[in-house]
Write a structure and sequence with these properties.
alpha+beta, Ribosomal Protein S5, domain 2, Alpha-Beta Plaits, 36% helix, binds L-homoserine
């Protein structure tokens, strides 16, 4: 029997639409991610558990885990006879890489179970493709950090999907999910199909500055560069009061904040524990819409998808 855990992630981190993402874990030691357990069985079987399993589709063929299993059977050209238990701990449509968690945990588990027929790059490529089937377009800014951990830059050249980027160790990352759902495909469909050349140039400048700042340990430059001119201007219509909320977080001492992935989770960065606690309280009182919502004070998860005890 194999049990695999895959962590939550923040896609885009403002400046790298579809090209930057970080894996995160709560500083209080709680798990924020999905688990997948696999054992051999006479037939394929899927058991759904976990706090958010009520959000999963009723039809098995629409379940991400089934899709992953089906892809793997096609690749190996045989029916893989296993029982899979998905612990769906991540809310679907939260902007925290919920689908990436299920995809990474399932594919890593099946690959391990089958004695690793796919190498890391093949596995990650497949993760991005499955993600694309669900969200409307392949993107790796959740699956890559979820799989490898840390801050990942999507390369997709030279047989390399992603590479780790140095990160600022004193940054504290907070995420607040209000308890409501935004579908990634919907949040992608409202983006323009074309951007002005000025926007493309500015975005290239900001992204290049962020990567340069990360490699040369210039946190001020990195923070200045973390501006979203690609998705945020269009997605704020899905997040009422976002501008005001962002201003309030900056007033409390946040050094950066933005939409996590396609939202509605907001991420906030600060570099002081007291400020982190203040922001935690403020977000808990002002951003959550129902009792399902949550706020977590996090650091980067450097391990990514991994085997854990049963
Ligand atoms: N980069 C993706 C998007 C992340 O913003 O659509 C989805 O969570």
């Amino acid at each position: 029997m194999i049990k695999i855990y895959a962590p939550a992630s923040i896609g885009n981190i403002n400046v790298g639409f579809d090209t930057l993402g970080v894996a995160i874990k709560p500083v209080d030691g709680k798990l924020l991610g999905d688990c997948v357990t696999i054992k051999s069985n006479e037939n394929f079987k899927l058991i759904n558990k976990g706090n958010f399993c009520f959000q999963l589709p009723k039809k098995i063929e629409e379940n991400i885990v089934w899709k992953c299993w089906n892809h793997f059977c096609r690749i190996l050209n045989r029916k893989i006879l296993i029982s899979i238990t998905l612990e769906k701990n991540m809310p679907i449509g939260s902007g925290l890489g919920s689908s990436a968690c299920s995809i990474a945990a399932t594919l890593v588990a099946i690959n391990k179970f089958c004695n690793e027929p796919l190498n890391e790059q093949e596995l990650l490529k497949l993760m991005g493709e499955v993600e694309g089937e669900i969200s409307g377009a392949p993107h790796y800014d959740n699956v890559a950090p979820c799989y490898y951990g840390g801050l990942q830059l999507i390369i997709k050249e030279n047989n390399c999907v992603s590479q780790p980027i140095p990160f600022f160790k004193d940054w504290i990352w907070l995420v607040a999910w209000p308890g409501i759902k935004i579908s990634t495909s919907e949040a992608r469909s409202i983006l323009p199909k074309k951007y002005k050349i000025e926007t493309c140039i500015k975005h290239s400048r900001l992204l290049a500055s962020f990567i340069h700042a990360s490699h040369t340990n210039q946190s001020k430059l990195a923070l200045k560069s973390m501006r979203d001119i690609i998705a945020e201007p269009y997605r704020i219509q899905l997040l009422p009061n976002f501008i005001q909320i962002k201003q309030n977080l900056l007033n409390l001492g946040a050094i950066n904040c933005g939409i996590s992935g396609s939202g509605p989770t907001i991420f906030t960065i600060c570099n002081d524990k007291k400020i982190a606690n203040k922001i935690y309280t403020w977000l808990s009182e002002n951003y959550l819409k129902n009792k399902n919502g949550f706020v977590h004070i996090c650091k980067l998860d450097l391990n990514g998808t991994r085997e854990i005890g049963l």
